């Protein structure tokens, strides 16, 4: 009787998980299939799943109408710089808050927690005014500098670093290692799961960022891929959904590749961060 009850419970659990998977994956699958449909079929009601006529015209238009290499390079440059900056500065701040004793450490950590509660849109206008007054509008610096570090990354790294034994760091200090050497040679190699988690989340957010590049970039040579895709897929009297879907597929691919490469470290970081 118990074995039968367990089998039923396991079956119900699997059905719920499969239903949840379909809800999550369904829109992405429809986006991928619809990018190969003619424009008329995309607009058909009710919508169809499988294309009746396969076509690559939207992908050809994507590379013909957009300066795709430039926009892709802009997105890659901004996303990589923002990700590297977060990995460096957030890990440094997290190490200081977790392992160094200095006056005001608790107050600084409370400020970090408070910043987590502040909506990003509240800081949008002050950041834009600051970037404009510094003469950084329509530049890579203006796109990158406001996002080189964030409270979430500091909190994530601090929580992970708390799990590293203090005795390990104290032993390195007794052996004569300085704080920089301890950080680079001991702490950072142990932080790979947390760094992978922070790197994926930061890259994803930066790659998909739309509003900030739309406001800061004033000429098309500084447009990122999401901005260029949105602007060029909207005509005077209509929206080219096929071009938009094909561009969305291309935008998703780099993020998917990054996740597949780092998924093991990402899952390990999610599982181990915040145990203390």
TrEMBL record:
<dbReference type="InterPro" id="IPR035906">
    <property type="entry name" value="MetI-like_sf"/>
</dbReference>
<feature type="transmembrane region" description="Helical">
    <location>
        <begin position="182"/>
        <end position="205"/>
    </location>
</feature>
<feature type="transmembrane region" description="Helical">
    <location>
        <begin position="12"/>
        <end position="33"/>
    </location>
</feature>
<feature type="transmembrane region" description="Helical">
    <location>
        <begin position="239"/>
        <end position="262"/>
    </location>
</feature>
<protein>
    <submittedName>
        <fullName>Carbohydrate ABC transporter permease</fullName>
    </submittedName>
</protein>
<keyword id="KW-0472">Membrane</keyword>
<keyword id="KW-1133">Transmembrane helix</keyword>
<feature type="transmembrane region" description="Helical">
    <location>
        <begin position="140"/>
        <end position="161"/>
    </location>
</feature>
<keyword id="KW-1003">Cell membrane</keyword>
<dbReference type="InterPro" id="IPR000515">
    <property type="entry name" value="MetI-like"/>
</dbReference>
<keyword id="KW-0813">Transport</keyword>
<dbReference type="Pfam" id="PF00528">
    <property type="entry name" value="BPD_transp_1"/>
</dbReference>
<feature type="transmembrane region" description="Helical">
    <location>
        <begin position="71"/>
        <end position="95"/>
    </location>
</feature>
<feature type="domain" description="ABC transmembrane type-1">
    <location>
        <begin position="72"/>
        <end position="262"/>
    </location>
</feature>
<keyword id="KW-0812">Transmembrane</keyword>
<feature type="transmembrane region" description="Helical">
    <location>
        <begin position="107"/>
        <end position="128"/>
    </location>
</feature>
<comment type="similarity">
    <text>Belongs to the binding-protein-dependent transport system permease family.</text>
</comment>
